[in-house]
Amino acid sequence: MLQAIGLTSARHRGLPPAVDDLTFEAGSGCVTALLGAPGSGKTEALRLMLELEPGRGITYFRGRPLHRVAQPAREVGVLLGDVPGHPVRTARGQLRMLCAAAGVPASRADELLETVGLAGLGDQRIGTLSLGMDRRLALASAMLGDPHTLILDEPAEGLTTREAGWLHGVLESHAARGGTVLFTTGDPKEAARSAGHVVTIDRGRVVADQGVADFSRTRLRPRVAVRSPHAARLAAVVSREARAARRSVEVVTEASRSRLSVYGSSCAEIGDAAFRHGLPVHQLADEIGDAGPFAGHGVPGHGISEPGVPGDETPGGVTSEAAGDGSGPARRPATGPTGPDLPPPIRRRPARGPLRPVRYELRRLFGTRTTTLIMVIALVASAGISVLLARNGRTPLPNVLAAWPSLLPLPPAALGAGLLGALSFGDEFRYPALAAGRGTVPRRLGLLVAKLAVSAGVALLLALLVVLASAASLRLFYGADLTRIPPNVFSLAVSWSGLTVGCAWAGLLAAGVFRVTAAGVAAVLAVPVLMVPLVQRMPKAPTARSMTGLPGRLRDLAWLQWPHETDRWVLAAMRVVAHPVGTALTLSLSVLICAYLFTSLRGRVRW
Predict the structure, then answer these.
(1) In this predicted model, what pLDDT tens digit does every residue of 375-402 receive, in sequence order?
(2) Which stretches does DSSP call E strand in 186-256?
(3) Coil/strand/helix, residue 261
(4) How far is it, in rounded angstroms, from Cα 499 to Cα 175?
(5) How many Å apart are CA 367 and CA 369, to the nearest integer?
(6) Is the confidence at residue 7, as pLDDT, over 80?
(7) Partners of 251 in the beta sheet?
(8) Rounded to two decimals, what is the model's pTM?
(9) Burial class (CB within 10 angstroms; exposed 0-12, middle 13-18, buried 19+) of 259
């Protein structure tokens, strides 16, 4: 069961709230429609329920607010708009990635593809799916965790009649298994066809809370659609004859002035009246008309409604039976001497991080061809540059193997690692699969650690492949003489690994701070372009002290005695940091880590 109590959106610039004290229930085993015209506050109400917007009120999902649910994906499934996935990712890849985020087996993706009718389109890219197929994939994403409650915003908008019928059939099947379904719509006929309970809102307030039978009787009434070039004269004739016969008939003139909607009469009666008075009729058909959320929309003088006639409407647009005791949501009584009891505030909370962050990040990274393409370009460019550098014979061997000429600020491997790191967070904000409808990505510690670990692993792999590709190219073009192993290979390997991993982390952190991929790329390029000249211009002391013996002193301070071989690693790391590029990269990473922590704490994110 879903219980929304006192939902009130925050005011913006003195405007009235889009949702004002909205209270209703959506029961288990039933499909509930939240009906309202555009601008009535339907979408804002859903976002308040899901704690995506600030305001007041509370929503209970089987007795618990959403922020108290340990695994929200297994309690609430959400469909807000289209699939927020990368357009080149496949439908199966998108679902498998979300399976890792929800903590469910990857086989669940294939099960849901079969359920929503996309079993044969699992390898189809998201960007090539039609609107109907995209809506099916979005529904599958919402149902990944097998949630009890489904919340959907205009799920059938833009779909064909057949596709909309299929979608509502899936929702009814979910409700038949004991689940709760709440969807918004602006079409009262869709609400009557597809829901068992209808909550009508206008200007953010509930105007009717009814079962579908009462809703159809009070809101959807049979009518006769009439089109005539003399619509005004025909309306007067029908109204006059209805008054003479003391029948309850309402005639409404549509905006086109040539079309009438007649409630309480039949095609035969209107056709006979038009024939008797010689009025031409171009259309005469029975329809189900929408009476609107409020009564009194007819043309003055053309409507007759006698007191005591069944179906007479109150000014609120619902019958006295529907608006009476027990039919609508109860108002909260005033408590205390200061007035009504205010509902608790709703704080905008970010989405939870993935339950399996490393698996999620691996599927996100290799779910598109971008990662492979960047690595291939870096390998090809490095091999070509290394061959050109070895031709003159003046470039040191380490620079040749790394394909790092003095003209380039960074070698291709470091640039590729930085770009992959920037995309790691940049794509999250551009295609926020973790936070549907939020437009932001949670800065969770587990997600950050997973991204750092995966990006470091990919950077090390790229660094190794570049050295191997450069060595193979040199051996192919110039023989085995240039591929000898240098004596300081250990320190060179540490420096090379630190450069690629540092660039990857710089791009990742900058993209996470500024929420755009370009910021990550700019941070990587700023290391050699801005930071290195700044470090080189720093004044040096005339008598610098030496840090020789630091590993031994660290061993004396530590509780655990590490092997003497570790001293080589410590010294190699010190040499890397002492290099101008290493110093610049260390300073950049320190600044980015502080900025990342500052923005996270400022957003009051719960770690």
Answers:
(1) 999 999 999 999 999 888 788 888 899 9
(2) 197-202, 205-211, 220-227, 250-253
(3) strand
(4) 55
(5) 7
(6) yes
(7) 262
(8) 0.77
(9) middle
